[in-house]
């Protein structure tokens, strides 16, 4: 059996040596499921960079329920019960409510559900 590739070994080593606590939760472009969730408060700088938001359900291939924030060059997996994320969703809902009346984002109900 062949050992791990040099590229994956290098990536693992970089993640282990990194002082950035969010480094371990970044999704490479080829990955479709979150394996770790960020639980700390989110910075407003990070939230300003969000391009798209997805909900990852804990069914089928993915084992964790997560909110995936897509930024320009990376994606970050956030725990669904993260308070700063819930506050950000509420601010976005209020902001968009003035622009698009009767908008139902559908994510607020998912925020209260615990991981399965």
Automatic annotation (TrEMBL):
Protein name: C-C motif chemokine 27
Gene for this chain: CCL27
Entry-linked SMART domains: SCY (SM00199)
Secretion signal span: 1-24
Chemokine interleukin-8-like domain mapped to chain residues: 30-96
Organism: Equus przewalskii (Przewalski's horse)
Keywords: Cytokine, Signal
């Amino acid at each position: 059996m062949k050992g791990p590739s040099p590229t994956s070994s290098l990536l693992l080593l970089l993640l282990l040596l990194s002082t950035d606590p969010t480094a371990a939760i970044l999704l490479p472009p080829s990955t479709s499921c979150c394996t770790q969730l960020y639980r700390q408060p989110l910075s407003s700088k990070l939230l300003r960079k969000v391009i798209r938001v997805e909900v990852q359900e804990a069914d089928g291939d993915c084992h964790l329920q997560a909110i995936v924030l897509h930024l320009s060059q990376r994606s970050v997996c956030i725990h669904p019960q993260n308070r700063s994320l819930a506050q950000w969703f509420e601010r976005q809902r209020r902001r968009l409510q003035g622009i698009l009346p009767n908008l139902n984002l559908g994510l607020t109900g998912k925020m209260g559900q615990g991981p399965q």
